[in-house]
Amino acid sequence: MGDQNIDPQFVDKETDNYNLQPTSPCIGTGRYDNDRGALPFEPTYADNNKSLPEDFMLLNNYPNPFNAATTISYILPEPTDVTIEIYDMLGGLIEALHSGSQSAGEHSLNWNANSYSSGIYFYKITAGEFEQTEKMTLLK
């Protein structure tokens, strides 16, 4: 039956060699011919030789001012639960763009404001103990 201590998927977890075993059940389960697994590959900071930031960061949305849609970006130094919310000028919550766990690294969300009127809006990130709010302007 083989060695009971060998992980059927990864070559050697103790040395951080996370290549799939040639006999891994994940090989060939992807959507494309040469795909090595069922999930798409998403580069991480480690894959791009970038180091993770030490602090949480909420970046300026772009474009700003915007017409109809804008992108909100943020950086997480560690995996954590994240909530991104949009508020109106009176502080009323109008939309939650994301709520859930996310990995460390840079993330972006698009906000389509087609159904909202021109004006000032605020976007807020809550990530663990970190909270920050920024202003954006919708012009139609």
Summarize the structure in short:
Helices cover 0% and strands 44% of the residues. The chain is mainly beta.
CATH superfamily of the largest domain: Macroglobulin (MG2) domain
Please tally the β strands and state the result.
9
N-to-C span:
67 Å
- Count of runs of 4 or more consecutive helical residues: 0
Main beta-sheet strand count, sense and barrel state: 4 strands, antiparallel
CATH class value of the largest domain = Mainly Beta
Structure description:
The chain has 140 residues and is mainly β. It folds into 2 domains: 35 residues, no CATH class; 82 residues, Macroglobulin (MG2) domain (Immunoglobulin-like, Sandwich). Helices cover 0% and strands 44% of the residues. The chain is built from no helices and 9 strands. The strands form 3 sheets. A 4-stranded antiparallel beta sheet has the order 6-5-8-9, with no helix packed on it. Strand 5 and strand 6 form a beta hairpin. The model has no long low-confidence stretch (mean pLDDT 80).
